Amino acid sequence: MAVFACIAAVAIGIDQITKACALVALGDGRTIRVIPNLLSLTLVRNPGASLGMGSSVTGLISLLACAACVLLVALAIRTTSMLWTVAFALAFSGAAGNLIDRVAYAQGFMNGKVVDFLDYGWSVGNVADIFLMCAGLGIVLLMLFSQPFEDEAAAPAGHGPGSVDGGSVDGGSVDGAVGAGACDDHPTDDDAARGTRRT
Asked: Which of 15, 101, 116, 119 is catalytic?
């Protein structure tokens, strides 16, 4: 969870700082062209989800974002895979980054508008959206390549060398058992003497 927390803290920090800078630099309605026909900086307040969808149900989108954040934290706690942890952390950062906007700028029940400023020509987004996109792509790749949810190194003890069916095998115990079995199978000198007297 330490890795998850560090990634989330840094990513959310970057998202919020870039949004604050956009509010200051682009608040007068100007557009700054970064890459002609590919990327511009334009301030847009988005009440909906990606591509402006769901603009009339902002409160519901916020509730779904809360549920997603809780689920991602639960998954991060369960996994022992570093790759899955990174993917969950990025997804959490994206969801939480936009959720912060909906709460901070709300005029009703979590109905605030998200600060978007990365204008691609066909859509306007922000850094949180980039984190969500990277997380989604990463999760798809992890599933395609069957990345284990738990690393083998963190597998429960009892399935590795020196263990049988979850129970450890102790060399001293085995030797003691073998010695005890030998005593039971082979008569001692006293037993031989008693047998001679009986004869």
From this structure: 116
